[in-house]
Amino acid sequence: MNNTDREINKGGTDVTKPEEQVKDRRFAVTTTSGSNETQYMIPIQYYACGPNVQYNHFRSALRMAMYQNRTVAEIPFATLGSQPHFDRSGLRKFTDTFDVERLQRTIPTVSMETFKEVCNNTVDVVLMAANRDMDFKILEDSYKRHKHAFKEMFGIELPEYSAVDTPNIMYTDGLSPPANQKKCLGLFSIYSYNHVNVRDEETKAKISKNLIRSKVIREMADNILDQICDGKPYIAIHWRNKTGEVCHIPSLRPSCYHQLPVSDGNAERTIPDILALMKEHNLSCAYVAHPQFSTQYPIVLRRGNVPNVFDQQSIINLNADNKAIYRFVSDTYMMSLLEQELCQYAALFLYTVQSNWSSFITSLRDQDGKKSIALDDLPSWKPIPKN
Fold it and tell me: Who's near 326: CB < 8 A, 6+ residues apart?
């Protein structure tokens, strides 16, 4: 099995392009302003609910940039909250996460250094995707934090909040002429990336096909897919009830007394549902992605006679003699990307509602015509009380 340059179409057929066809298109663009000058876009992202929000935000920026014929800056991503404390405040290079060469088949990109050079360390105008139902005070405070962070981390000066352009609903083909004419454009929609709308399904498909994980992630996934389930199709489950992340916070701990029993009960209750789905889809193996707070869940499944349950620890054990795995063992950011890749290629995916980790994968699977089911929709699932 070789997934290192795999594209799966809706019919399930592998469609690949030789790497030699990849060309550096960083400056081969036309512009909407009628000028021959290259125009640029930078996604304004750092503070958010984890890197998966930023991945979705970046994908929205790509949609707009394609319509505007802009070259996109390869913005780095924040680390996970579960990253070891010494590394939690850092940034991860764009190339750790996504394959730049593949992305350039769809849209030109430039490094942050190049963006700073051609834009003179400034952003001419910032568009903020939002609607009237949002709390603009929260958006203003967030933007000001980003303005300070971009200056401190990247040496890039953003406009004042008062100069930010905030259309009610932002369509990629409906920007105002002044924004179209600016050389260096910023997109700030970190909490509302879904408001950057694309009316063209072909554009979405191009992005989905070429915004893929970095080569090191795909190569490790290849290796693992050959090891688990004898290379056969499998069901993937993303189990994240979020109680583990909040129950250690004193002010939120009282709610856990009501939530944890229901959550633990769901783990047991839904086993017959999972077994039924595996039988229906002729699957004899399961991969479970879960945060560090939910290490008991795979054990619950095995105890409930779910066959051939693999998880993060399983793949580490299987690769004990493979030095490459140790890069992932000590790096929760890279391990998270690896597990997302495994969930993306599963025959069936059971996902966690209200999880940006899951939503990033389901959107890719939807584009490929792959089936995903919310855990909340399983017949035996009992809603977890909010308080």
Answer: none
